Amino acid sequence: MLNLDFAFLTPQVVSSYVLKGFVFSLQLTFIAMLGGIALGTVLALMRLSSKPWLTLPAAAYVNTMRSIPLVMVILWFFLLIPLIIGRPLGAEMSAIITFTLFEAAYYSEIMRAGIQSVARGQVAAGYALGMRYGQTMRLVVLPQAFRNMLPVLLTQTIILFQDTSLVYAIGAYDLLKGFEVAGKNFNRPVETYLVAAVLYFAISFSLSMLVRKLQQRIAIIR
Amino acid sequence: MSSWDWQVFCKDTIDGEIVPRCFGGAGDVTYLDWLLSAWGWTLSVSLLALGVALVLGSIMGILRTAPHRGLVLLGNAWTELFRNIPLLVQIFLWYHVVPALIPPLRGVPSFILVVLGLGLFTSARISEQVKAGIQSLPRGQRMAGLALGFTLPQTYRHVILPMAFRIVIPPLTSESMNIVKNSAVAFAVSISELTLFALQAQEETARGIEIYLAVTGLYFITAFAINRVLHFIEQRVRVPGMIGGGR
Predict the structure, then answer these.
(1) What is the pLDDT of residues A188-214, one digit of tens each?
(2) Alpha helix locations (H) across A86-188?
(3) First CA to last CA distance, chain A
(4) pLDDT in tens, A83-128
(5) Which of A:99-138 have CB within 8 Å of B?
(6) Position A77 in a domain
(7) Interface test mutation site (partner A, options B4, B89, B118, max chain A beta carbons within 10 A)
């Protein structure tokens, strides 16, 4: 029964099947993280403003994104983007757009909590120094909010990295797909899925250990 | 892009003819029938997995607070293992790898394997919530229980858990809604649930927007219903005098 054979996974096989997918998974994670945090911060500021025409659309966007399964969001964008731009878009590009817009909803909730964790007096102090709203946010509130929320933002990024495997739904070539194709070609699916699981685990687990360390350091400094 | 065509749901899935009352008769299946049966699969996978996750997650969460190194280690290892592998990969492990390594599991239907996969994945997250709930209680509660002569299991049963479970209802509510959303990955191993319906019906009818809207709507309704049920339970079991306890 137990005749696992990993010998076919030579460096050459790994580099020709898996590496390409791994690079895409990392790319997707980083772009969606940076874009998601930027857009999420804007959404958080909108939701915390006092103007209903800013809060309502931001709240609607965030709540909608958060109540639909990510797989369905991926399918929706893959269906809608070509209709909107009028030409087909590759699965990879579609995934990058989807994840950036989807993760923005989650990052915005984190940033909202982060901004709310900054003492109210900080905003008053900014205004008292003659700063405008934008300056107060950029120079006083957001740096502290980012710092307070850094561990949570990074934890969300680890979840994002795991979720990138869902681009399976539209057939984008990511890390999991790389292993799957290798498994099919060498007729060794059991081994490749096992190695994929171990690799995902090693990456996510070590990153979450790092986040835990960081959390302790930040806690001491504060 | 042409206009709406909601009649797509009244079409027969085989010949594409529109069936008068939208529901197919004997032997005929319309897209509406298929949609509803897919919803049934989503509900079954989600609710059964939720059951598995609540039981295992509570046990593991409790073990992680026990005054015993071995048990804590077991609970921690469980949680880290199931939390750090993407759900889709875990589903593939259950579907392709587990039956290959454990021959007795070879005949098990994929539905059961998906329920186990989703349940164990979620149990790691529930164990976090349960652990946090138990640890949020004052230490004196446990000491008082033991001082009264309760054994450790009795202290958990009568003193710690009744409060801890009330505290974790709100996070459990969002985990329960997550499980409905996460059940969407079952499409990858050909469970005929909503997402697989969306993919296949979209391809067959080329009416993607109508199909996706219906599916998304059903996910909304399901998650919202679970939210209401748990909110009701939360209201019913609240303890007067505690934060959020009211009167």
Answers:
(1) 889 999 999 999 999 999 999 999 999
(2) 91-116, 120-128, 133-135, 142-163, 175-185
(3) 56
(4) 898 888 889 999 999 999 999 999 999 999 999 989 889 999 999 9
(5) none
(6) yes
(7) B89
Query: Could B97 and A196 be called an inter-chain contact, meaning their C-beta atoms sit closer than 8 Å?
Result: no
Helix H segments across chain B?
Answer: 31-63, 69-83, 87-92, 98-101, 110-135, 139-147, 152-155, 161-167, 169-182, 194-205, 208-237
pTM to 2 decimal places:
0.91
Domain B32-237 has CATH 1.10.3720.10: yes
Would you say B118 and B87 are in contact if contact means Cβ atoms under 8 Å apart? yes
A1 falls within a domain = no
Task: Name the residue range of residue A41's domain.
Answer: 21-174
Q: What tens digit of pLDDT does each residue of B215-229 get?
A: 999 999 998 899 899
Distance separating alpha carbons of residues A16 and A20, to the nearest angstrom = 7
Cα–Cα distance list, B113 to B109, B147, B190 (Å) = 7, 45, 12
ipTM over 0.85: yes
Q: How far is CA B92 from CA A192, B38, B65, B162, in A?
A: 11, 21, 32, 37
Residue B56: what pLDDT? Answer: 97
pLDDT at A72: 94
From A71, A197, A204, residue closest to B195, measured CB to CB = A71
User: Under an 8 A CB cutoff, do A67 and B198 touch?
Assistant: no
Token pair for B7: 């009649």
- Tell me, what CATH number does A38's domain have? 1.10.3720.10
Counted domains in chain A? 1
Backbone dihedral angles phi then psi of residue B11, each to the nearest 5 degrees: -75, 145
Nearest-Å Rg of the Cα atoms of chain B is 22
**Collapsed DSSP state (helix, strand, coil) of residue B28:** coil
- CA A105 to mean position of chain CA atoms: 10
- The answer to whether position A64 is within a domain reads yes
B30-62 burial string, b = 16+ CB within 10 Å, else e?
Answer: bbbbbbeebbebbbebbbbbbebbbebbbbbbb
Read off the pLDDT band of B246 (50, 70, 90): very low
Report yes or no on A218 lying in a domain.
no
Separation between Cα atoms, residue B187 and residue B199, nearest integer Å: 9
